[in-house]
Write a structure and sequence with these properties.
single chain, about 325 residues, alpha+beta, 9 helices
Length: about 325
């Protein structure tokens, strides 16, 4: 059975875009991690070979999450075709009233294969909207820009196909000079296609705070960050926390340790220190504690439900 050409085009686009997105995502992941370290005011010290692997995994996790996020918004932008056509009509109507002529924006008609993945985009918009309602409008604008980018890529791909057809058909009235010009145009169009793909991948970065959210998600997935956990801190750092106004719980795991609850772990597992935020409402005030002086109590599902204590782990 012959695979439909439309599906073949989509598959080729996905494979090429995934390759570009993977490389771009890993680079952006590394830059985003550096930005995160700058934000918390700490850069890992004493990094070992194992820590380097952890850093690579953070970049890969960021790349995977970023690809899913970008691709889902891309699919959602194309699937909102009826909305964009409605906007076109609205703009044309307004232009007509003002006696102005505008060229309507062309959009790519959605393929059924996009509909399913666009649901993931809707889920992203919903989840982000729960915490930051103001960013939803920005995400819709992002989808609109991605829809325009998709239409431009399709137009460029069609022009490339037309040139390839002309060059392969051996038309007698096509001179060598014309063939050379066609080949130059083809190369230029391919560059433009890559630019459109890169632009589509970079658009989500313009969403305020989204790169930070993806980094946080990557760190949480790899357990390099944890919100509101119980920690057991050895002297003298336990004394430092007390001097800052934190009250330890009565029970502790030993005479040299003091236990504190509700502490945010901003970074662990990379370098020789663990970064904690003793006061979550003051995120810029962070403390780096040597790994040998802190034990982080593992947070389990049953603990979230029943608030029962569990064994600890380093």
């Amino acid at each position: 059975m012959k695979i439909p050409s439309r599906f073949d085009e989509i598959l080729e686009t996905v494979i090429k875009s995934f390759g570009i997105a993977s490389r771009l995502g890993i680079v952006l992941g590394g830059l985003a991690l550096l930005s995160y370290c700058y934000q918390i005011g700490y850069f890992p010290e004493g990094i070992s070979a194992g820590d380097t692997i952890a850093l690579i995994f953070v970049s890969i996790a960021f790349a995977v999450l970023y690809i899913i996020f970008s691709a889902s918004l891309y699919a959602l932008g194309i699937s909102l075709y009826p909305l964009w056509i409605l906007l076109n009509k609205l703009f044309l109507f307004i232009a007509k009233i003002r006696n102005k002529k505008i060229t309507p924006v062309e959009y790519l008609k959605p393929d059924p294969s996009f509909i399913g993945f666009s649901l993931v985009g809707i889920l992203f918009v919903f989840l982000v909207g729960l915490s930051e309602k103001s960013i939803v409008i920005t995400m819709v604008i992002c989808c609109w820009m991605l829809a325009i980018s998709a239409a431009n890529r399709k137009k460029i791909a069609t022009q490339i196909s037309d040139i390839e057809l002309t060059l392969s058909s051996n038309i007698l009235n096509v001179s060598e000079h014309q063939k050379t010009e066609l080949k130059k145009n083809k190369a230029l169009l391919k560059k433009m296609k890559i630019q459109q793909t890169t632009f589509a991948l970079l658009i989500p970065l313009f969403l305020g705070g989204m790169s930070e959210k993806i980094v946080n998600g990557s760190l949480n997935i790899l357990s390099l960050k944890a919100p509101s956990v119980t920690i057991h801190v050895k002297k003298p750092h336990s004394n430092l926390l007390e001097n800052l106004g934190l009250k330890p719980v009565e029970k502790s795991i030993g005479p040299d340790y003091k236990t504190f609850k509700g502490i945010d772990i901003l970074l662990r597992g990379i370098g020789k220190n663990t970064v904690v935020a003793p006061f979550p409402l003051t995120p810029k005030f962070n403390i780096a504690i040597p790994n040998e002086n802190i034990i982080i109590q593992k947070k389990r599902l049953s603990e979230n439900k029943n608030n029962k204590s569990h064994p600890t782990e380093k």
